[in-house]
Amino acid sequence: MDLAPDNDWRSPGFRQKVVAQIEEAMRKAGTAHAKTSNEMENHVFIKAKSREEYLSLVARLIIHFRDIRKLSVSGCQADRSFQRYP
Predict the structure, then answer these.
(1) What is the pLDDT of residues 39-71, one digit of tens each?
(2) Looking at residue 7, what is its pLDDT?
(3) Do 79 and 34 meet the contact criterion of CB atoms below 8 Å apart?
(4) Measured between alpha carbons, how far is 23 from 40 in angstroms, rounded to an integer?
(5) Are 35 and 72 in contact (CB under 8 A)?
(6) What structural domains and CATH numbers belong to the chain?
(7) What percent of the chain is helix, strand and coil (3-state, nearest 5)?
(8) Which long-range contacts (CB under 8 A, 24 or more apart) does 81-85 make?
(9) Do 15 and 37 form a contact (C-beta atoms < 8 A)?
(10) Which of 10, 56, 64, 73 has a Cα-to-Cα distance from 4 of 20 to 30 A?
């Protein structure tokens, strides 16, 4: 994605790839969300004033979902170990 021309980030194809990445991160996080991946990407798109800002905001969003996933995985492991030792 980083090799695309500066204005390519506004193209429907580029944005759809970003939506797919957000969707994948949401799916892996495994939690319910109030907004769809399309809505989240559109919010970021409207907020961003440049390609760099757009990609930075998308990256932060994806990292947020990865953090949710890590917390839920570590929480499940803690629950299991707690159940073993009542």
Answers:
(1) 999 999 999 999 999 999 999 999 999 998 787
(2) 76
(3) no
(4) 10
(5) no
(6) 6-84 (1.10.246.20)
(7) 80, 0, 20
(8) none
(9) no
(10) 64
Dihedrals φ, ψ of 54, to 5°? -60, -50
Confidence of residue 86 (pLDDT cuts 50, 70, 90): very low
Give the tokens for residue 39.
């809505």
Q: Distance (Å, rounded) from C-alpha 67 to C-alpha 41? A: 18
Largest CA distance in the chain: 59
- Cα 86 from Cα 83, distance rounded (Å): 6
What are 52's two structure tokens?
């760099």
0.85 cut: is pTM over it? no
